Structures are given as structure tokens and as C-alpha cells.
Amino acid sequence: MNELLWLSFAVLDLTMVVVLFRLFGKPALYGLIVFNLLLCNIQVLKTIELFGFTTTLGNVLYASVFLATDLLGEFYGKDAAKKGVLLGFAVLVMATVYMQIAMQFTPSADDFVQPHLEAIFGLLPRLALASLAAYLVSQLHDIWAYHFWRKRTGEGKLWLRNNLSTLVSQLLDSAIFCLIAFWGVFETPVLIEILITTYLFKAFVAALDTPFIYLAKRVVSRERAAASAS
Q: Which pLDDT tens digit goes with each residue over 6-49?
């Protein structure tokens, strides 16, 4: 059941990236980076079993962040992609600070939400540190690698630069995040299992996003052709 749900979730999320990009253009990609980054940092708290392995739930949404930055880099240039990365970084910092402030308010006598907020967001500073470090290193590497391979492949072989840049960047991200977020939280064998399986599942979603980036390129090409004709 988990496997089918996870795969359906991945396809849905990647599809929505293309749909929103088609409807709203570049602003949608910035919005998706922020939305998925915030939500995956909550979902990552949940560990699940997939194909007999333990992994975190947030890997689907986080993988699609790479698709959004690759789309920004492909169609709007390296500076636009970097702006998206820095926007996500700034919003994650704000969310961390704001939720820590929110938990400092004394709850009313009949409040029932505070313990749940503490259970989720009490871990957020450490998760945010892990996410920020992993996010910046991996995303900046992804942008650099994407354009490195683009210079060598030209306009062709989109699948190659998309996958080469993302697969290495996802490895950096998984290693940095898991070591900072979960060191001392899980026993070493579980930590290693989470790191490996998290990367493998992210790598699978990264490969899965290849037809979606081609679909997005086809949409953009059609729109630009129509604009030139009119």
C-alpha cells in the first residue's frame, strides 16, 4: 500500500509542477520551491516503510524542488535559479524563527494544540539547520553542475544534464541532512539505512522527473512559438 501511494504521490507532485508552471510561469516555480521546502521539512519527521526499507516521507516533495530549480535554470538562466534557491533559504529561516516565537506564547487553559506544535516544531531548529546546510550545498551544486553540463551538451541531451546534476546533488543533500538531523537520534545502523534509502528514493524521483522536464520544455517552446507568430 505504501509503495503504490508513494509512487502516486511522486507522479502527482511532479505533474503539479508542470501544471502550475504552465498556468503561472516563473512565479509558480518560485512558489513551488517555497511550498515544497516548507512542507517536506514537516513530512520528513515521519519515517515509513517502502519496499522493506525505512525511509523518510519528505523525499518526494524535496526531489521536486530540484525539478523547479532545473526549470528555472533551463528557461530563465542561472541567476533565476539562484534567486529561487535563496528565496527558499530565506523563507525557511523565517518559518523556523516565527514558529519558535509562536511556541513562546503561554497557551490558554483550554488549548490543546501546544503539545502538538512542540512535538513537530520543537525539532524544527535542528531539522532547519540540517535542511539549510543540505539545501544550500546541494542546490548550489545542482545549479553549477546543470550549467556545467549544459555548456558541454548545448541545447540537446536535456535528460543528461538534468540527471547528472540532480543525482550527485541529491547524494550531497542526503548525506548532509541525515548526519546533521538524525545523528544521535537513531542508532547508527538505522541512520545509515535512512541515508541510503533516502538517497535511493530521491534518485528514483529524480529519474522520474525526466519526462516532466521534457513536457515543460515542450509547453514553453509552443508558447514562445505562438508569441513569435503573433
A: 999 999 999 999 999 999 999 999 999 999 988 987 887 788 88
d(CA 69, CA 80): 8
| Domain ranges, residue 19 | 2-103+110-229
What pLDDT band is residue 230 in, cutting at 50, 70 and 90?
Answer: low
Which distant-in-sequence residues (6+ apart) come within 8 Å of 62 by Cβ? 36, 37, 40, 44, 173, 202
The CATH number given to whatever domain includes residue 15 is: 1.10.1760
CA distance 17 to 154: 24
The amino acid that residue 73 corresponds to is G
Domain count, the chain: 1
Helix (H, G, I), strand (E, B) or coil at 53: strand
Q: How far apart are CA 69 and CA 41, in angstroms?
A: 18
**Is residue 108 left, alpha or beta, with left meaning phi > 0 and alpha meaning psi from -120 to 50?**
beta
Per-residue CA distances from 207 to 61, 75, 84, 105, 200 (Å): 14, 20, 22, 45, 11
